[in-house]
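When time allows, look over one protein, given below as sequence and C-alpha cells. The question is which stretches look regular and which look disordered:
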Amino acid sequence: QVQLQESGPGLVKPSQTLSLTCTVSGGSITTNYYYWSWIRQPPGKGLECIGSITYSGSTIYSPSLKSRTSISRDTSKNQFTLQLRSATPEDTAVYYCARRGATDEYDYWGQGTQVTVSS
C-alpha cells in the first residue's frame, strides 16, 4: 500500500518561498511509469495541478505557475519537494501530493496540508 505524507510550514509570509515535502512509503518514486504530483485547492475553488516529477526525474509544470515553481526529489529518502517562489495570498490553499499512474488517474493521495500566505 502506497502512502504519501505532506510536510512543511503552515504559514508563509508574502514574497517568501513556499516549500513542502512529500514522503512516500510502500513504493519507490523511481518505479516506472509513475508521476508524482503536487495539487492544490484554494478555499472555495477546485483542484489545480501545480506540477509533477516523473519516475525518471523529469518535471512538468502548470503553465500558469511555471515561472515560480520547482519540483525536485531525493531518491535516497523517497521524497519529492515543491518550491513555490514569491508567494502571495492567492497561493493560500490545501496542498496535496499524489501519484499519477499509467491511466492518467491519481490513485494515491496524501491527506493534504493547509498553507496560508499571510503577513
